[in-house]
Design goal:
The complex is a heterodimer of chains A (336) and B (363). Chain A is α+β, with helices and mostly antiparallel strands. Chain A has eight helices and 14 strands. Chain A folds into two domains: 113 residues, 60s Ribosomal Protein L30, Chain: A (2-Layer Sandwich), CATH 3.30.1330.10; 158 residues, Phosphoribosyl-aminoimidazole Synthetase, Chain A, domain 2. A six-stranded mixed β-sheet of chain B has the order 4-3-5-6-11-10, sandwiched between helices. A five-stranded parallel β-sheet of chain B has the order 2-1-7-8-9. The chains are: A alpha+beta (336), B alpha/beta (363). At the A-B interface, helix 7 and strand 14 of A face helix 2, helix 3, helix 5 and helix 15 of B.
Chain lengths: 336, 363
């Protein structure tokens, strides 16, 4: 096979993306720690601990039920900081616009960016705008970078899962991917599903008092809950046992997934987090989530059962058992 | 509980599992049942149904994934067509990553070929109508479930007077490979879980000859977990009673005579031919090509192109896997050289491929 070209799969967040990072990008840069295992870099600048992250947004279509590319660009970067347990402080924004893009659409997008930033309590403090000739871009691409303050000494990361931990999700899974897909040209499905795009830093602030009992926080975006849990299992060297019966999934998401042959476990979320919490504090963590507006449907979906080379297994809704692997290839390109 | 959930009821499934265990208890040689449809393969893996069955029942996967049974030569022709100027390839998404002899459609797209994923062949007709200066080719791959919609697209193109819409047809039809597998001395299949939606088109009567000529029980089975478990239970019951007949488990959709309208459209636009199946070879009357009366829409006739020399993939056991002789994990390439992201064989690519299912759910 030809190996000279960038393929769509290189942007999927899966194995090809990791290869591209490890074999081409990181070796040619200096000072970058080994392949992006976490959502943000941790910096210590003169004793001040900071988290720093960046993300680009190319979602298609740019407007979808429950949001648009603008609030997604704010929430996604805020969430990358929040998953490190950092308090998001400020963002930058870079717009790449295609010649001929409607100013009215840009205004809608910028307005929702402001609203999302206000809701998350972050400031957008710097930015840049470029325009490319018609046909050389696709209406609008947005990059946001963010800085957050680390104000605790907890070690919340993907390698910190321990045997006995409960896996908790803050609500129904798969809404974002299905909302975007439903709005796509040629597939207009009226599923009634809205994207869950939301900033999770407020919810994380509520969870931080759990202290040492809070082991892992991750937002299951591309590749869905399955891919994120498999990453955690691999990083921590544990087996995670899931219960399909306990997975919260909206009826509309179930329906669209059935029609299109998708598995909600692999569909992207933009306002969900997975928390792995020590069993003695798991009930408390669940209660905290359920009190929060973004955690009404929170549920314990599984637990860490043993040390291993990194496995995820699931008891299916009919009582069978199967393995859960990472998403391979692109299930739905350009969902964020 | 909604309609869908009732077909995924845990207690029903577990009750069926108990009945299957009772029907097969004490058997020395396990009963081998083959599912011939890729959607069944996926359902069996996705719901972990094997883990619910007793050791006396073994489920194996057959040649029921349309992408998987499509030979390299077809891909090579599609790739060659995609390199022609002013030509757009339209296809279902699964075909993109299937490796041909030396390239794939995804690679050709990265190099600049105009290759578009559509959800229906009628979308391809719309693209042709909107782009009269382009030649638009739809990759017609699939069994009797897909073939009528492709036939419909050709009828629609004719009705609209389009001269720039073509189909590269490699449709396959169902009962023939099951006869070959039934006659194979290396395989002893004790029952077929017959396809659900293919049977809705061709009708359950199509399988009768398998029962009379090869004494293999056949149960036309739906795709939900209670369907599959009930289908297995019906096969186990026939085996226990020494019977071999066709039964319809999926009676909410499938009729004995099938769908006459769809059969009529197929007979109008297509004509049976001796089709090549990956791993199995050429089977008499097992495929559908475009009938002479619609030759102007046949990409193979209307768009002659130089196709590269055929190369098979070294070490790939797709062919044996499609016949149910080898399990995915027994292929030396599985999970190492061959993964869904850099597949060697088609079984690892298609969303209904046995290797893809085993990779995603099985390990």
């Amino acid at each position: 096979m030809n190996d000279d070209l960038i393929l769509l799969g290189h942007g999927s967040g899966g194995k090809l993306s990791h290869q591209l990072l490890d074999e081409l990008i990181i070796p040619n840069l200096s000072g970058v720690p080994a392949a992006g295992q976490n959502d943000a870099a941790l910096l210590n600048i003169g004793g001040v601990k900071l988290a720093f992250t960046t993300d680009s947004y190319v979602v298609d279509p740019i407007f979808f039920p429950g949001g648009n590319i603008g609030d997604l660009a704010v929430n996604g970067t805020v969430n990358d900081l929040a998953m490190m347990g950092a308090r998001p402080l400020c963002l930058s924004v870079g717009f790449i616009l295609e010649e001929g893009f409607l100013k009215s659409e840009l205004a809608r997008i910028v307005t929702s960016m402001r609203e999302a930033a206000d809701a998350a309590g972050v400031a957008i403090v710097t930015g840049d705008t470029k325009v490319v000739p018609r046909g050389k871009g696709d209406r609008i691409f947005i990059n946001t970078s963010g800085i957050g303050a680390l104000e605790h000494s907890l070690s919340i990361n993907g390698a910190a899962a321990r045997v006995g931990d409960k896996v908790i999700v803050n609500g129904c899974i798969g809404d974002h991917g299905i909302a975007v897909l439903s709005a796509r040209e040629g597939l207009e499905i009226d599923s009634g599903i809205k994207s869950d795009s939301a900033a999770l830093n407020g919810l994380v602030t509520e969870l931080l008092p759990l202290g040492d009992a809070l082991h892992v926080l991750r937002d299951p975006t591309r590749g869905g809950v399955a891919t994120t849990l498999k990453e955690i299992a691999l990083q921590s060297g544990v087996t995670v046992q899931l219960s399909e019966e306990n997975l919260p999934v909206n009826a509309g998401v179930k329906g669209v997934c059935s029609i299109l042959g998708l598995d909600p476990l692999y569909v992207a979320n933009e306002g969900k987090l997975l928390a792995l919490v020590a069993p003695e504090r798991a009930g408390e963590a669940l209660a905290i989530m359920r009190r929060h507006p973004l955690g009404k449907d929170a549920a314990v979906i599984g637990e860490v059962t043993e040390s291993s080379a990194g496995r995820v297994v699931m008891e299916t809704m009919v009582g069978g058992v199967r393995g859960v692997e990472m998403l391979a290839g692109e299930q739905l390109p350009r969902i964020c | 509980m909604n309609y869908q959930d009732s077909f995924r009821d845990k207690e029903l499934v577990q009750g069926l599992a108990r009945r299957i265990a009772e029907l097969t208890r004490g058997r020395k040689k396990p009963l081998v049942f083959m599912e011939v449809c890729g959607t069944h393969t996926m359902a069996i893996y996705q719901y972990g149904l094997r883990s619910l069955l007793p050791p006396e029942v073994k489920l194996i996967s057959g040649p029921g994934c349309p992408v998987c049974v499509t030979p390299n030569g077809y891909l090579d022709r599609a790739i060659a067509l995609s390199r022609l100027p002013d030509l757009t390839i339209t296809t279902f998404g699964d075909m993109l990553r299937v490796p041909g002899s030396s390239s794939s459609l995804m690679e050709e797209r990265a190099k600049g070929a105009d290759i578009r994923v559509v959800y229906s062949p009628l979308d391809a007709v719309r693209i042709a109508a909107a782009n009269p200066a382009k030649r638009v080719v739809f990759l017609g791959v699939g069994f009797e479930t897909t073939a009528p919609t492709v036939a419909g697209s050709i009828l629609a193109a004719k009705a609209q007077g389009l001269s720039n819409y073509f189909v590269l047809a490699s449709h396959k039809t169902m009962p023939q490979p099951m006869a070959i597998l039934s006659a194979d001395p290396d395989l002893s299949v004790d029952g077929y879980i017959c396809p659900a939606h293919v049977s809705a088109i061709i009708g359950a009567d199509a399988y009768r000859f398998l029962c009379t000529e090869y004494q293999v029980p056949c149960v036309v089975t739906g795709f939900e977990p209670t369907d599959v478990m009930q289908g297995v239970e019906m096969l186990a019951r026939q085996a226990q009673q020494g019977e071999s007949r066709v039964e319809i488990q999926y009676s909410r959709v499938v009729r004995w005579e099938g769908n006459a309208k769809a059969q009529g459209v197929l007979a109008e636009v297509f004509t049976p031919f001796d089709a090549p199946w990956r791993g199995i070879g050429v089977l008499p009357g097992s495929g559908l090509r475009i009938a002479d009366a619609y030759g102007e829409f046949d990409a193979e006739l209307a768009l002659p192109v130089q196709v590269e020399e055929l190369k098979e993939h070294q070490g790939c056991l797709c062919g044996e896997i499609l016949k149910g002789k080898v399990a995915p994990g027994d292929c030396p390439l599985f999970g190492g050289k061959c993964t869904p992201e850099s597949p060697v064989g088609a079984c690892m690519v298609s969303s209904e491929g046995t290797c893809a299912a085993a990779f995603k759910y099985g390990r």
